[in-house]
Predict the structure.
Amino acid sequence: MASRLPPTRRPELAGLEGADLLVPDGTPLAEAFERTTDLGIGAHPDDLELMALAPIGGCRHDPLRWFSGVVCTDGAGAARAGRFTSLDPVAYVEQRRREQRHAAELGGYSVMVQLGHPSDAVRSDEGFERLVDELHDVVDRARPMNVYTHSPTDKHETHVAVAAATITALRRLAPDRRPFHVVGCEGWRGLDWLGDHEKVVFDTSALEDLGRELAGAHESQLAVTAYDRAEAGRRRANAVFSDPHQPQKAAAAAVAMDLSPLVHNPDIDPVEFVVAAVDRFRRDVQGGLRRWFP
């Protein structure tokens, strides 16, 4: 039976007193954090299920791996449609919280942490620092090997804020407590423009049914837009258009940006790191065109 842990001031929850916590299999919270090998950090309810299908599915099929998730905002500002338009703000936030809990149960997560901040709060200076502190606390408890967050090239401002908070929090960890691998996942922009040697590619061919099930938990969002079909289509497109000179190797694939250097070397400027990838894309396009337009 799922273990729901309401806000409390128990010592073991210091720093997370206001969070909505769920341990789907009822394991004690400390143990559930400690067994985590893969941690997803998303901005809104449903982001994890759309962007982190590969680790969620990988952990479900590997007894030595456990996926845990953090959702930073309450999702109150999302568009509404259908039967959800009549919900007042409090009821709508609770609806999205229930949907995220359901997704965590379907995905067999180790811990589901919903911080519940308003989106504009995490984009403020004070709210950003609070989020960094909370993410630092979660990662320090879990000590995952792998962390998945939003791409810093995302179009959505809140996604970028969460990616930045994640990187900042991980950099504040002691070097021996930092995750081995950190990636930024596709969302409101794809990453097909990255150079092939720079892409982190996850084969999701065997996980597409799970992807539909996880996305389907977020009924309020699918009532607005077909996010599930769009994300599945992007994964199929990633696989089909991966290499124009080679046969297709997978039926579906997720692409991510490797952010590990930013975490392991805090001296690297994150802005310059990301812009350098964009510049490499620019030079690649420029070189291809200059052959014909010298």
